[in-house]
Automatic annotation (TrEMBL), chains A, B, C:
The lineage of its organism: Bacteria, Pseudomonadati, Bacteroidota, Flavobacteriia, Flavobacteriales. Keywords: Ammonia transport, Membrane, Transmembrane, Transmembrane helix, Transport. It comes from the Bacteria. PANTHER family: AMMONIUM TRANSPORTER, AMMONIUM TRANSPORTER SLL0108-RELATED. It is found in: Cell membrane; Membrane. SUPFAM superfamilies: Ammonium transporter (SSF111352). This is Ammonium transporter. It comes from Joostella atrarenae. Belongs to the ammonia transporter channel (TC 1.A.11.2) family.
Length: 409, 409, 409
C-alpha cells in the first residue's frame, strides 16, 4: 500500500511537470507574436522563422547534448558530464520541461536583433546558445552541485538562469549588429512603431499564461506540500505581472501624458521576469512590490538604452529580460520571507544574489560576445542595406507575410 | 495511510483548480480578440488597454479586498467580512480561480461601450466593479451563507453571478454612453462591421476552450466522484456551445439568406453562457436544448436591442451575457434532472431561479447605474466627437495599432 | 483502502484525458489559423465558418451516433452497435476526447478544398464524415475488436485513423472540386501565396501544442507506468516535429536557395503527423528519424501533387495528413522498438501496417468519393466563377473579414 501511494505522488509530479512544460512551450508563440507585433510587417516571416528555429533546433540540440551538459553529474561544479541523445525513460518529463526553458532563453535574443540580422548567423548563434551558453550557466544553479547552488544562490525559476542570460546575449547582439537604418538620425532616436498591437497584446497574454507553468512548474512537484507552494507561486506570479502592468501604465501616463500600450505590455512582462527568481520565496505583498519596481525599472531602462546609450532594441528585450531579470534576482535578497533583508536576514542573501547576477551576467556577456564577434568577422551579422530597407522577408525568405494588403512602409 | 490518501485527493483538487484557473485566465485574451475583431481598427489599442486593465487592476483589487468581501464570513447573508491583502497559504488556488472569474465579469462591459468611452472613466468603473459590485452579489450565491444560497438558488458556474452581472452593467453602460457616431441615422440602424473576423473567431475558440475550465473548474474538486461530474460538465458545456452555434448559423441562414459569421460565433458564446448555470445539473440532452434556446435567443435579442431599442452594443455583449445568462439561469428550473420542471420538480426551482435572476439583475443595474451616472456627471463617459471619429487609439493612447497598413475608414 | 487508491488512479486518468482533450480541442483553432493564413483574405470568413461547423456539427453528430458507431460493441469487427444520444456518466471524458479527434479528421478536408467550395455542400460532407466515414474505420483500429486490431495493426494516436482518413478525403475533394481559377495556366502551376504568415505560424504553434494532448492523451491513462509512457510520448512528439521542421527548412534552403516559411511550418506538421502512429512505440532517436523522413517527404509530396499531378491543395493537407500519415504508420513497422524491422522484428509488423494503411486508405477514398460525387451531381461542389473571383466571404456569407484595410487582390 505504501508503495502505491508513493506511486501516486510520482504520477502527480510527472503530470504537473508535463502540463507546466506544455504551458512553457506555448510561450514560444507568445514571443513570436510580441516580437512580430512590435516590429514592421516586412520582417514577420523572418521573425517567425527565427522563433521556430529556436524551438526546433533547441529541442534537438538540448536532447542531443544540452540537457546532460546542464544536468549531468557535475564536473568541478562548473559543467555536467555530457552524454549524447538523452534517453532515460523515467526522466523524459524533466527533459521536456528543461527543453522548453532552453528554447525560451534562445528566443529572447531574437527580439533585440530583429529586422536587420542575417538568418544564417542567427541560426548558428541559436544552436550555440542552446547547446553551450545556456546549459553551462544553468548547471551552476539548477543541477544541485553547481558553484552558485553551493553559495546559496536563489533563482527559483530563472530570472537570471533564463531571462538575464537571454537578455545579456541580446545586449551583445544589439550592440554588435548595430541600430536599424533610420533609428538614430542627427543624434535623435526615432520611434519605429510595431505593425500589429493586437499581436503584441495576444503575445503578452500568452506569455503571462505560460509563465504560470514556467514558475509553478519549477517547483518540479505538486504532491503533498508542493501543491500549496505551486498555488502560492501562481498568485505571486499573477500579482507581480499585474503590478508591473499597472505601474508602467501609470508611469507612462504621467511621463508622456497618455497611457502607452507597448510600455504597459512590457510592464507586465517586466513584472513576470522580476518575480521569476523569487516566486516561491516571497509573500504576495512582496510579489506586488517586486512587480511595481520591475514596472518602474523597465520604463526607465528602455528609455535609457534607447535614448542615452542609443542601443536599438526593437522590443525592449534587454530591459525586460536582462535588467528586470537581474533586478528580480537581487530583490530575492530583500523580500525573501526566509533570509531577505526586510525579514531580518541581513545582507548575506543579497550578497549571494549579487554574486550570481554578476557571475552569470559575465558568462553570458563574454560567451555571446566571443561567438557573435567571430560570426561578425566571418559570416557577418547583418543583411545589406537594400535587404534591410526592402525587408528581410523578401530577401532572406523570398516571401511576404501579408501579400493581400497595401503596405505603407 | 488514511491521511496520505486524503492528502492525494487534496492535491488533485488543488491541481485541478489551478489548471482550470489558467484556462479561465486565457479567456481574457479571448475577450480581447472578440472585442477588437468585432470593432474598428482605429480602436484596437484602446480595447487592448481596457482588457489588460480589467485583468491587472482586477487581480490587484480582488486580492486587496474583493475576495474577502465575496468569500469572507457572511455579514447578514449579504456581504463577506473584508480583510486586506488576502494571504492564506492553503487557499491561494481558490484566490486565483476566483480572481480570473472576477476579471471576466469586468471585461464583459468593455465590449458594449467600445469605441467611444473615455479610458480614465473605464478604469475607475473596472476598479469598482471588481472590488464591490461583483464580489457582493457573488457572495449571495457562492459563499455558502448568502441569501440566495439559502433560498436554493442554483448558479453553478455563474450564468448570473458572472455573465448577467457583466451583461447588465454593459446595458447600463451602453445606454449612458450612447450610440457611436453614425450608428443610427434617420431612425435606421447602420451596421458597423468589425475589422478582423479571424481575431473574432480565434477569440471565440479561446473562450470556448477557457469555458471548460470555467465550468468544470467550478466543481472546485476533481477527486472521487467529482471526476465524473467534471467530465459531465465538459460534455454539457461543449454540446451547448455546439448547439448554440449551429442554431444561430441556421437561423441567420433562414432569416438573412446567408449563414452569418458574427451571429454564429455569438451563438456559440450564447450557448456557453446559457449552460454555465446548469452545466452540472442537466443531462447532455438538456444541455443541447439549452444551447438551441440560447442560440435562438441571442439572434433575436441582438436584433431587438439594436434595431428596436436602438442601444448600440458593438459586440452583442448585453444579449450574449445578460440575456442568455438570465435565460440559462431560468432554464435550470426547467432542465435540472433533480428539481427541474421537466423532471417533475414543479415550479419551485424555477421560481427560485427567477428570484435570483431578478435580484442580482437589479443589483447590477442599480449599482452600475449609480457609478456610471456619477462618472458621467463628473469625469464624463465619452470622448469628444473628434476623438471618436479619428479613433481612440490616436487620442487616448497616442498610437496606431496597424501603422504599416493602408486603412480605409 | 485498496479501493481508495484505485479511485485515485481512476481520477488521475480521467483528469489526464480531459486535459488532453482540451488541448486537442485547441487544435481546431490551429487548423483555422493555418488554413486562413495560407489562403487569401477574401475567403477567411468561409474558412472560419467551415472549421466552426466541423467542431459544432461534429460535436453534436458524434454524441448523437458517431461515438457508439465507433466504440459500441463490435458487429463483425466492422462497426460498433449504435445507440443514440450517448450518456454514460462514467465515460463522458472518453466521449469528449474522441469527439475532438473526430472534429480534427473532418477539418483536414477543409484546407484542401479551400477558396472554391460551396458552404452548403461542405456542411453536408462534414456531417457524413463525422457520423459515418471516420467512426467506422476508427472502429477497426481503436474499439478493441476491430479487424485491424485483431491483425496487430498499430496506430497509437491516429496517423492513419485520423490524419490519413482526413488526407485521403481531402485528396478526393481537391480532385472533384478542381483547381482554383488561375492556379494552373498554360500548363504551369502558379503560386497563390497565403494572406497572413503570422496566422499560419500561430496556427502551427497551436497545433504542435495541441498534439501533446493528441498523442500523450491517447495513452488514455496517466496512472502508474502510464505516466512514463506519456512523458516519453511528449518527447517523441516534440523531437519528430522539430526534426520535421529543420529538415523541411534545410531542404527548401538547398532546393530554392532560401529557407521557405510555409514549407518549414508544414515540415513541423509533417513530423507531427508522422510520429502520431508510433509515438508510444519508438525511441527518441527513432522519432527524430521519422521526423526527418516526414520533413523530406512533405516537401517532395507537395511539389509532386502541385506541379506534376496538378491537384490544387492550397494548404498542403493531402501531403501533410494523407501522405505523411501513411508514411508514419508504415514506419512503425521499421522503428518500433518492439517488433520493428530495425529491431529484428522482421517484415511482419511492416506488412500489417501496410494492410492497415491500404485498407483504411481505400475506405476513405471510396466513401468520400461516393459522397462527394453524389454531392457534385446534385447540389454541386463549387461556387460560381464570379463568386470565387470576388471571394466566398462576400457571396457565401455576405461579409468581409477585413473591411478596414485596402486589399490588393
Amino acid at each position: 500500500m505504501e508503495t502505491n501511494v508513493i506511486e501516486v505522488n510520482a504520477v502527480l509530479d510527472i503530470m504537473w511537470i508535463m502540463i507546466a512544460g506544455i504551458l512553457v512551450f506555448f510561450m514560444q508563440s507568445g514571443f513570436t507574436l510580441v516580437e512580430s507585433g512590435f516590429t514592421r510587417s516586412k520582417n514577420v516571416i523572418n521573425i517567425v522563422m527565427k522563433n521556430f528555429v529556436d524551438l526546433a533546433v533547441g529541442s534537438l540540440a538540448f536532447w542531443f547534448i544540452g540537457y546532460t551538459l546542464m544536468y549531468g553529474e557535475s564536473i568541478g561544479s562548473f559543467i555536467g558530464t555530457p552524454s549524447l541523445f538523452y534517453n532515460v525513460r523515467e526522466d523524459m518529463h524533466n527533459l521536456f520541461f528543461q527543453t522548453v526553458f532552453c528554447a525560451t532563453a534562445a528566443t529572447i535574443v531574437s527580439g533585440a536583433v530583429a529586422e536587420r540580422t542575417k538568418f544564417t548567423t542567427y541560426v548558428i548563434f541559436s544552436l550555440i546558445m542552446t547547446t553551450l551558453i545556456y546549459p553551462i550557466s544553468g548547471h551552476w544553479v539548477w543541477q544541485g552541485d553547481g558553484w552558485l547552488t553551493k553559495l546559496g544562490f536563489i533563482d527559483f525559476a530563472g530570472s537570471t538562469v533564463v531571462h538575464s542570460v537571454g537578455g545579456w546575449a541580446a545586449l551583445v547582439g544589439a550592440i554588435l549588429v548595430g541600430p536599424r537604418i533610420g533609428k538614430y538620425t542627427e543624434g535623435k532616436s526615432n520611434a519605429i512603431p510595431g505593425h500589429n498591437m493586437m499581436f503584441g497584446a495576444l503575445g503578452v497574454f500568452i506569455l503571462w499564461l505560460g509563465w504560470f507553468g514556467f514558475n509553478a512548474g519549477s517547483e518540479l512537484a505538486i504532491s503533498g506540500e508542493s501543491s500549496f507552494n505551486a498555488a502560492g507561486i501562481i498568485i505571486t506570479t499573477n500579482l507581480a505581472a499585474a503590478a508591473g502592468a499597472v505601474t508602467a501604465l501609470a508611469l507612462t501616463w504621467i511621463r508622456y501624458g497618455k497611457p502607452e500600450v507597448s510600455m504597459t505590455l512590457n510592464g507586465a512582462l517586466a513584472g513576470l521576469v522580476g518575480i521569476t527568481a523569487g516566486c516561491a520565496a516571497v509573500s504576495p505583498g512582496g510579489a506586488a512590490i517586486i512587480g511595481v519596481l520591475s514596472g518602474l525599472t523597465v520604463v526607465f531602462s528602455i528609455e535609457f538604452i534607447d535614448k542615452t546609450l542609443k542601443i536599438d532594441d526593437p522590443v525592449g528585450a534587454i530591459s525586460v529580460h536582462g535588467v528586470c531579470g537581474a533586478l528580480g534576482t537581487l530583490l530575492v535578497g530583500v523580500f525573501a520571507t526566509d533570509g531577505g533583508l526586510l525579514y531580518g536576514g541581513g545582507f548575506g542573501q543579497l550578497g549571494v544574489q549579487a554574486i550570481g547576477v554578476v557571475g552569470i551576467g559575465a558568462w553570458a556577456l563574454i560567451t555571446s560576445f566571443i561567438v557573435l564577434f567571430i560570426l561578425k568577422k566571418t559570416l557577418g551579422l547583418r543583411v545589406t542595406k537594400e535587404e534591410e530597407i526592402e525587408g528581410l522577408d523578401m530577401h532572406e525568405h523570398d516571401g511576404a507575410a501579408y501579400p493581400d494588403f497595401t503596405i505603407d512602409r
